[in-house]
Amino acid sequence: MTKETLLPLGVILICAVAVTVAVVLVARLFRAAMAEYRTAVDRMTRQQDQVSTQLTDLTNRVAEIERILRSVG
């Protein structure tokens, strides 16, 4: 091979390696971000379940207080 063909091939090879490395790094970053997102969603789901349970408990307590007030009045 001559110098005229080696230089363009070298540039193309360097560009291909750079693009491959960039794609791999972006994929890793995306995977890490998705893992954090899933963790956050799981945490929020648990908190929402707790709030729902507390709301149900409070609703039952208010209903019981209303029943007592109606029976007294």
How would the blueprint of this fold be written?
Blueprint: H1 3-72
Give structural attributes:
73 residues, mainly alpha, 1 helix, rod-shaped
How would you characterize the overall build of this protein?
It is built from one helix and no strands. By secondary structure, it is mostly helical. 96% of the residues lie in helices and 0% in strands.
Query: Which structural class best describes the helix and strand composition?
Result: mainly alpha
Q: SSE string, helix = H, strand = E?
A: H
Separation of termini?
104 Å
CA radius of gyration is 31 Å
Multimeric state of these chains? single chain
Globular, elongated, flat, extended or rod-shaped: what is the shape? rod-shaped
* Overall average residue pLDDT: 95
In short:
Helix content is 96%, strand content 0%. The protein is mostly helical and 73 residues long.
